């Protein structure tokens, strides 16, 4: 492993470990924090001890749901300070959803809270409804989320039985289009600003069509300046 670093001096390696920022493909069923811990473990293992800084600080530019995959921006050391500058903004997602079933998490991991008919929904109705959710809109975040209340994630409070009122807030959806439609399943592509919840979007679309819906898969294809082609697969974390 030291052979891979023979062309670098200690100062150059130190800079890589204290000023870096890059994107990875977050694996399914990993939390964003678990991904950071794995990257830190790999860096500690790959870099000789005498090259390593005393503190190896890592951060990410925005939480992805643990069942979601795709672009996760990572900062190392001073690079963490760049994350809110470069990555607070635009994101793109591909989401698959299912009509007729609502869950308490708004995705496939939650408990079923409602079942409704969906056979009245046509593709034209679906596409017309999507247009209502573009531009500046108000959106209510899910109760199972990483948003903070009194210093803790609201999702943690919810799991402990605390019912926190979620209020609508302004968000921006730059574009929203249908990729697939085959009842009860559908797939959409979303380009949005910061603070936008695709799970809430799918939940709202279901209600707008006199039914209900939840997200079955979610994949982020863009996060700030990082695109899919920029992200490192798990096998490339070294």
UniProtKB/TrEMBL annotation:
Residues 57-198 form the Pseudouridine synthase II N-terminal domain. GO terms for cellular component: nucleus. It holds the Pfam family TruB_N. InterPro entries: PsdUridine_synth_cat_dom_sf, PsdUridine_synth_N, tRNA_psdUridine_synth_TruB, TruB_C. Residues 199-233 form the tRNA pseudouridylate synthase B C-terminal domain. SUPFAM superfamilies: Pseudouridine synthase. Belongs to the pseudouridine synthase TruB family. NCBIfam families: TruB. This is tRNA pseudouridine(55) synthase. It comes from Gryllus firmus. The lineage of its organism: Eukaryota, Metazoa, Ecdysozoa, Arthropoda, Hexapoda.
């Amino acid at each position: 492993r030291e052979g891979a670093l023979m062309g670098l001096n200690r100062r150059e390696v130190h800079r890589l470990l204290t000023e870096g920022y890059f994107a990875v493909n977050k694996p399914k069923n990993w939390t964003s924090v678990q991904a950071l811990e794995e990257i830190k473990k790999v860096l500690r293992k790959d870099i000789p001890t005498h090259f390593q800084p005393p503190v190896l600080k890592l951060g990410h530019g925005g939480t992805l749901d643990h069942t979601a995959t795709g672009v996760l921006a990572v900062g190392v050391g001073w690079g963490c300070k760049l994350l809110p500058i470069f990555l607070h903004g635009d994101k793109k997602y591909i989401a698959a959803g299912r009509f007729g079933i609502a869950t308490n998490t708004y995705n496939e991991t939650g408990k079923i809270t409602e079942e409704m008919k969906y056979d009245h929904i046509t593709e034209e109705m679906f596409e017309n409804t999507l247009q209502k959710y573009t531009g500046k809109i108000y959106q209510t975040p899910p109760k199972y989320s990483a948003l903070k209340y009194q210093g803790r994630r609201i999702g943690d409070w919810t799991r402990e039985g605390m019912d926190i009122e979620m209020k609508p807030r302004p968000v921006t959806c730059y574009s929203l289009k249908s990729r697939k439609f085959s009842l009860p399943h559908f797939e959409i592509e979303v380009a949005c600003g910061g603070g936008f919840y695709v799970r809430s979007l799918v939940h709202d679309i279901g209600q707008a069509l006199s039914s209900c819906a939840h997200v079955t898969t979610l994949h982020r294809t863009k996060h700030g300046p990082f695109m899919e082609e920029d992200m490192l697969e798990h096998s490339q974390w070294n």
